[in-house]
Write a structure and sequence with these properties.
Layout (H helix, E strand, L loop, with lengths): L2 H24 L5 H32 L1
């Protein structure tokens, strides 16, 4: 698989995860305060995972 297709797949995967997360939160039966708390926690988790993914890609690029 070419590098371009790998990037498209990862981008699509991340986009799908974000859309699924947002829809799940919007339709979840929770109060506004609970929803905001959950969004904040999940947003931090997503940011951390994104940083880890980018660091892994940077390491992979440096090794090549």
């Amino acid at each position: 698989m070419s590098e371009r297709n790998d990037g498209n797949f990862v981008g699509g995967l991340i986009t799908g995860a974000i859309i699924g997360f947002v829809l799940g939160i919007l339709f979840a039966p929770a109060s506004g305060a609970e929803t905001r708390k959950i969004l904040g926690e999940k947003g931090k988790e997503l940011l951390q995972k994104g940083k880890e993914l980018l660091q892994g890609e940077a390491v992979e690029i440096e090794e090549e």
